[in-house]
Design a protein that fits this description.
about 20% helix, globular, 6-stranded mixed β-sheet, 3-stranded antiparallel β-sheet, alpha+beta
């Protein structure tokens, strides 16, 4: 299965897969602005109603230039798992927010891990990472893996990015938010408040 397209909301443009023809510029290489509303990854048979708390899915995250990343290696730390899209301006803006979170909360026991959910993301990850320079591990996932990571209900069709999954020191998902939720109207302040609270537990 693959992610067939990204649904546009009022302030977002339709998804166009990165073009391979000579002279074409992939969307992630063009200037972007923070979107008021986020894109939605359309996941056939997936919805945004995830149960918490729950054990984190035992699902290594594929990486481009190294072996898959096993989240169990971060036991003893809080993990913030972020699922994003290269075609989502809000997701791209989130990278800077996540970088600051890793820098500020890393010494207190946080590890940010990202995963790109676009079709064939492994082929465009190099330029994307080079441009936006995440300071946290950034891999890629397919549609089935997003459904497993987010524990999405299979009765409805949408999951909105960014998706933030907060995993405690024992590998239990304690909180999860998706891009259509009020959390993202003031993303950085809400993220920092959530981390400040969670990292004391």
């Amino acid at each position: 299965m693959h992610l067939p397209f990204l649904q546009k909301n009022r302030d977002c443009r339709p998804f166009r897969p990165p073009l391979a023809k000579s002279g074409a510029v992939p969307a992630f290489q063009r200037p972007v602005k923070r979107a008021t509303l986020t894109f939605a990854i359309i996941l056939s048979a997936a919805a945004v109603f995830a149960v918490t708390p729950r054990p984190m899915a035992d699902l290594p995250i594929p990486m481009v230039n190294s072996k898959p990343l096993d989240l169990k290696q971060f036991r003893g730390k809080w993990v913030l798992m972020a699922v994003i899209s290269q075609e989502c301006p809000a997701c791209i803006a989130s990278i800077e927010i996540l970088n600051r979170a890793q820098k500020d909360f890393g010494p207190r026991g946080l590890q940010v891990v990202g995963a790109v959910g676009d079709p064939n993301a492994q082929y465009s990850m190099g330029p994307f990472v080079q441009r936006y320079r995440p300071i946290f591990p950034l891999g890629y996932v397919n549609q089935d893996q997003i459904v497993r990571l987010g524990d999405f209900d299979k009765s409805a069709p949408h999951a909105y990015v960014p998706i933030f999954i907060f995993i405690d020191r024992k590998g239990v998902v304690r909180q999860q938010v998706s891009g259509n939720e009020p959390f993202f109207t003031n993303e950085e302040a809400n993220l920092r408040a959530a981390l400040t609270s969670l990292l004391t537990k």
